[in-house]
């Protein structure tokens, strides 16, 4: 097999904008397969063909393709001619000694002007394969389906389909900034926005040196894993422990969690605007913890004029955990650590905070100075996939 045929589904509905979406998907495929000696990636009449080089390792290519958003399915394939006998001969050569209790040929035409119909291809090519192999034809539940796609200049054929990641190609949905805690929820929220084509800036608030670096190490692992999907990621590490200490000294205990979250949103907003992101993303779920009642979420959201997206808001913990396991972040998220979400948390936080009370409590804090201090101490780390001699870039200062 020398080619991969990539099929997309949602992109086909994009009308006049479809070529732009497909160009970005082709770009992302080239980026994801960098370093694997791929000969070419090109759009071919409603599908994308990836021409593999002689040295391309199929298992690694398959693993990378399965993570590229925008793909409905893909298949290791080969090319053949329009001539039915020659096409059947090519298929039989690739089948080799493979055995199947039953089979069928499933054919499509990319160009309806071709001088034969799909049923004709299925009948003629299938008959030749049946004659050579002696296999039983089963149109309903075949043990093997041989797919044939007739193009104007030849045909693709392949013997199975690998599921793609679905969604929209990275870079088509604009930029957002996600508050990444290192727990189970927020990595899933970030993944879901990536799957809708958004480029996601990752922002982590930590309490080092008051607490250990464990939460930072966790989010680095999560960022590296998520980067396998969006190919380039920026992680901003924001020290938050000293700001929490200031809140503890000035704010009544019940309101502290709400004010922590409002501070985080204000800082994240500044970072988002510098990155030209148009919305903030959180892993909030209604009713999951004290700060995530509808009343508290409303009071917290008033801290920023930026749109706040909550992809998980109506899910339960089992659903989120199952998705975290599927995408691979769950084993990282459950590693024990201490993060700023648990530091200085009162025993009885307010569950129905009223905005006037929150704003009155904030009057005791130098909010602008606190934001400036956090931005000035923030660290930026860039991630790439695949890692081709790239060093992780780290610097301090106000991120831009």
Can you tell me about this structure?
There is one protein chain. With 400 residues, the chain is of the alpha/beta class. The chain folds into 2 domains: 3-163, VC0802-like; 175-396, Rossmann fold. 38% of the residues lie in helices and 21% in strands. The chain has helices at residues 18-32, 58-65, 84-95, 118-133, 185-195, 214-230, 241-250, 256-274, 294-301, 317-327, 330-333, 355-362, 367-377; strands spanning 3-7, 38-43, 48-52, 73-80, 102-109, 136-137, 144-151, 154-158, 162-163, 175-179, 199-206, 232-239, 279-281, 307-309, 379-384, 394-396. The strands form 2 sheets. Strands 1, 2, 3, 4, 5, 6, 7, 8 and 9 form a 9-stranded mixed β-sheet that branches. The protein starts with a strand and ends with a strand. Mean pLDDT is 92; it is low at 389-398.
